[in-house]
Sequence to fold (936 residues):
Amino acid sequence: MEQRFVLLLVCLWSFMAVAEPVAWDGTAKSWLTRGSEHFQIHYPQGEQYEETALHALDLAETVHKQLIPFFGTVPATKTQLVLVDDFDISNGWATFSPFPQIRLFSSPPQDINGLENNDEWMAALIRHEYVHILHMEMARGIPANGRKVFGRLPFFFPHALTPPLFIEGLAVYFETNPTLGIGRLQSNFYEMQMRAEVRSGEFDELGEAVASLREWPYGKHYLYGAYFIDYLVRTYGEQQLQRYLQQYSKQILPYIMQNDVARTVFGKNFAQLWDDFRKDMLVRFAADPEQTYVEGRSIADSGFRTLATTVLGDRLFVNYANDQDRAELRVYPIDSNAQAADGDFLTYTKGITDLDVNAEGVIAASRRISYSSGRLENDIFIWQNSDWTRLTSEQRLRKVRWLPEGELLVASRMVAGISELYLLNLSGEMSLLWRGVAGDVLGDFDVSPDGLSIAASIKRPDQGWNLELFSIADHVWTPLTNSLSIESAPEYTPDGSLLFTADYDGVFNIYLRTSEGDVSQITQVESGAFSPRWRDGSVVYQQYTVTGYQLREIPMLSALPPALTVTDVPIGMHNYPNPVLISANSSDAEPYSPLKTVRPYYWLPAWEITDTNSRVGLQTGGMDALGRHMYSLLLLRDVKQDVWEGSAFYSYDPRWTLSWDRSHSYRFPFSEVLDPIVIRDDTVRGERNYLLRGIEDQLSLSAGLSYSNKSLVRAPEDITIVGPRDLSQGLAGLALTFDNRETYLQSTGVGWGHKIEIVAETNDLLESAYKGEQYQADWQYSFNIAGRHSLTLSAAGGWADDTAGTFILGGLPPQEDLQRFGRDELSLSGYQQGAAIGHFYDRERIKFSAWLGRIEDNWDVWPIGAGDVSLSLYAESGAAWFRGQDRKALPAVGMELSIEALIGYRLILPIKAGVAYGIDDTLGETQTYLRTAWYY
Fold:
């Protein structure tokens, strides 16, 4: 069915709703539910999750009591908490649609990224996400009454229609506790990032911070937003911030009223407030002209986005990932006189988060793999003899180190939020070394040169991050440090000393701790120094910059000023108070039921009025708390033509989808004065994806069906209809797909990889006017081009029995149906639809896309901005023919300019202007077009 009913509110709903089902093949066989006064929590069955769920309810009720005095609005329904253990990353999310819900990732942060500065992960996570819920729920006047009539539509949630800069900034502000020194606004990592932004001389304008898409640092709307909200509170007071939120809560034109409300409350619009904020940051983070710095020489000539490094002798191995090219494993030989370079290529990589190498040059790597089930988990791989071998499967091992003899590995993992250490042999067999308790968080670690102990950065319950020593033989931990600072990334030197990162003076630097306990400072950097590696008498480390992390190297003989050489480590214990202040009085656990949350939560009017139609109707939809059941329904009545139309869609996680569409077309045989011939088109499609999976879920088998029926509804009395009044086609088939394509944040199009798909369908299993089989095959390959450009080759072909349906070529993309099954119309630029028809077809394309530049600006707080600009050049050729006919190729060329429009701060709308030229003298034509495509 053509999408005729494109309304602003529909678009808003589509990009605000979060549709992320829990993983379907996790270890939990069933889910349980508990409730409290203001929350329900859903969690996998199991003792380890039961304890976390009960604790999360206590935390949530405590946070609710603490935050309600500021926000003043209680959600109309209980907030749904879902505890998941599907990801080897630290994250979470919250949304108001279609009901207030929070997803809690049970995995606490192990690395220094701003999130490490917490008293307890679950407490920090719930507080941050519940701020979003209470913030979004704020509504007065027309927005509040509108919810009572139309349900939970985004238009009636004014604070959802504001920049993420304000939304995330407010949550980071409230997650921070200056008294306890926790939260990102108390984090030396966040301070480092803002210091770098200020001193770079490229402090973001307001519009640039609002349009936070791809510029480094990633997630800068959190960074700038947090400091901006903090500035407003420091300057005007928390009561004025509260007043602004309350005033904005009643706006019926929320996007455009932000500056008016700001002027009313603060006396200035946001552009003026941002200018004052920028001046405040320039003073606060101004460089000290008397400060001297000790930094190493640059090794690599470009900034990395993600880094994993290891050293063997004088060779530095680096997983090079810049988010615009295919990731590579490179080696940098030592050369003190060399300029910064790119290193020597060893092999391509994907998803590597940790590296270590043994004395024989065998590399162990932890790789993060994204599965079709929705899980994101790490496993260990070995690189030897120029080839990768998978050592473990779905074991979630995140960090890895060789024992000195090079035959055994030590690896860490986290399951249900509990840290563990394992001993691992080269057959992949695992034996447990240590399992922590709730609140123990194991970070980076290293094995001592004698192989008897492990030095690790570890966070104990109610404490901060310290270094401890683990005896492999006795399984006993011994504290090495006891400080109020963050100590991380221990690395042994050959003599048994420890290199590590710490923020003793408020800046992360590299330190050396001898076996006697003496600590010396190795670097004195302006931003921050991380992840030290010992390389043949020098220290390689990663230094944060405004363009990414930069590899640097400093000889151990480089002397710091005498006063800084030996460091007095600040001694102390945090002893954070228990974050639970009240008991949730939770209900008994009961089996999870989707029926309690899956009801419709909104309805939206839809209409279209043309010369021939007057359609009116409504749309609704919903999902359950686990996100497994999702559906939408659109019903329309064409009052002029006296017919019903509509569409329905249902999915059960990514595996099952079912859709129905009904539309009508109208033919006026003589003139539009007469009644039209009315033809109804009903289509039903269903798919069962991932019947079989393999090769890290890059290979999959799917089944599908497609049934369509065109029927004559009515015709004028003086019109004689010749032929059948109904024409149906029912196809059922299988599709085998291999897809290892990679897309990169900084690159246009697909960055690299293959997609191969073979579809076989038959007309003989469902009612159909056609008989026999039809087959289609599609191949695409994208080359790894250096930089932000892409080049893709593709070829497709199909063949069908003489009694089956035909393939139709012609028209601009996306003329073809994008689903796998029931596809019979395929685009061919430069030609009209139906330019070629037959039981056989082929089509070939080559497309080059060049990244032209980046705007990334919203120009103040207006809900319209721009992102990347790119140009594509393409050539294609296609043909369709019947058995016994000659194949006639129809070639074409074209070009397309694409500018990303940013709508409503979140929705990326590529606006594409293009021209296509069909080269064939008879059928070819010049087609110009301006079109858009929605995605978020």
User: Anything to note?
Assistant: The chain is about 15% helix and 40% strand. Residues 1-17 have pLDDT under 50 and may be disordered.
